[in-house]
Amino acid sequence: MARGSPSTTTQPLSQSSKSKKEQSKLPTWNLAKAALLVSIGGGFNFGYQLLITNPAQAAFIEFLNDSYAKTHGVYESRETLVFIWGVIVSTFFWGATVGALLIQTVADRLGRRNGIIGSFLVQIIAVALEILSSFTNSYILYSLARILLGAAIGVSIGIGPMFIIECSPLACRGMISMATGILLQVGLVVGSITAMPEIWGTVDSWWLIYGLELLLTISVTVLLLFLPESPSYLLTQDKEQAAEESILFYHGVSERETEPLIESLKKGTEGEKPLGLFEIFTDKKWLCGFLVGIAIMNGTMMCGVAAVNAFAFDILLSVGLKATHASLGNLAICIMAVIGVLASGQLVERMGRRPLLLLTFGGLGLVNVLISGFMYMFQLNKEQWIGWCVVLSICVFNLSFAIGPGPLCFFVPGELVSQKAVAATYTWLNIVMNGSRTLLLIIYFPIQNALGGPLCYFILFFPPCVVTFAICYFYLPETKGLTPEQARHAMHRLRGFCGKGLKDETDGKEMSSY
């Protein structure tokens, strides 16, 4: 993008029109359809990949054992194979981190819709290679394909929320922006089911797990070709007529009602150059909103959900449950996440973003105390009922997580920064998301071996909940129904760093424009 050109980053559409349709908090069918398609290839596939390697781990390690012996002519010990498999699993997050670095470039150069389609095409290639690795018995091909798949999903899960926000009326922005979080939780459930040994989680059938993902991704890619680009991106490309048609498609308003929306979008993009990945750290106007958004994402990843997704099955086995009971418990935990995220779609507009995050982060901290406490009780008294208390506690954890941080961490940060800062913000959000998860997976077992499971769980996951709760309490304004500029001024009225350190001399003039 040339210097001085309009920003091509995300800006929610203004509520200039007062029509009943525009004021409705319910999205139009076209907008809901677009959010669903984008989120299947983004949030769903991401959640699906998080879970499938857990229930089917025994099958994958057997595949690795045979493939390693075929490639290197030697059979390794069980401990070595588990270590190698752990590295292979983590390669998905390496790829996702690389993909996060490409979000801004892909979104600005290809556009939102075309960038998403491109990432879906790469996903199709990567998943096809995963299937091929099963028939060629090549763990090396599987590992390379997993890196490529992580990069592609990293791009799509970053651009997807930007595209959805750009296409959404302000009144239903919160509800429709839940799509990524909802489909991510659905992906967790579907992955936990398809990867069970009783379904496809066996040495001969695990390729079918990827076959389902391949079929879904091909389908949504084809359907996405028939959807228009986001209106704000079209305006930055001087395609005003196409932008009007896009608003008509996604908002369901009349041609007359598109005029004030177009004018509002023009005002939001004129003269703004998108911030680079490191320029955002020197932009005092939007730095605080950016940092609060990053803190919310980091707290979301470090509150314990990564361990629940990756190790819930092993945790349940460690508290005395049989393998079958642990599988059923793991499934129940995932189902609670879906129930929670569906409830969140209603609560986010009724309660608001800030109260919901405060309530759920506080609840997650308390539940983490219960989980670590029950784990410690089982070490002292090997009673089976204690194991079921752990199942119940993790179910409550997943319910709370899915109501609050799970879906909100994908769109609340975008409400705290302006159009020129959103692409850089979402890039860093995805870097933090994958980096935090990777770091946690690396340090979890060494700390567990050194301190024991209960103390490890408490030390790793209770403090992040407390810290994030405090950040949301002191620095996060309520963003419901606000533009990023209005959210910035609301943030400046809070106490502390955001309220005093970043308030500039022009605030009074800017506020007079409202």
From TrEMBL:
* TM spans (from-to): 82-103, 115-133, 139-164, 176-195, 207-227, 286-313, 325-344, 356-379, 385-411, 423-445, 457-476
User: Residues annotated as region Disordered?
Assistant: 1-24
Q: What is its main location?
A: membrane
- Domain Major facilitator superfamily (MFS) profile residue range list: 35-480
Low complexity: bias regions: 1-17
- Asked if RNA-binding is a keyword of the record, the answer is no
UniProt keyword list: Membrane, Transmembrane, Transmembrane helix
Which locations, inside or outside the cell, does it occupy? Membrane
The record's Gene3D superfamilies line, in alphabetical order, gives: MFS general substrate transporter like domains
Checking InterPro entries in the record gives: GLUT, MFS_dom, MFS_sugar_transport-like, MFS_trans_sf, Sugar/inositol_transpt, Sugar_transporter_CS
A GO molecular function held by the record: hexose transmembrane transporter activity
Report membrane topology: Multi-pass membrane protein
Write down a Pfam family by its short name: Sugar_tr
Alphabetical GO CC annotations of the entry are: membrane
Q: What is this protein called?
A: Transporter major facilitator family protein
